[in-house]
Amino acid sequence: MRLFETEPAPLVPENEVMLALAWHDGDPIATIATLIGDCAFLRSELDAAEALLSKGYGRGWVPKRARD
Asked: Which of 33, 55, 59, 68 is the most buried (most CB within 10 A)?
């Protein structure tokens, strides 16, 4: 049994941008500042993962600081 007659539309990047702006009441500077803060936090989490996880634990996976 399906809960919805049609599948909900997936979020696309444009929608995500609009949602982020709406969260900050349309203020682009506040939106960018939050995203930069989030990036800094996630980079620190990657640093911790790199320091704490052995290569064997992640089956050879190691965190990357930049996209390919």
From this structure: 33
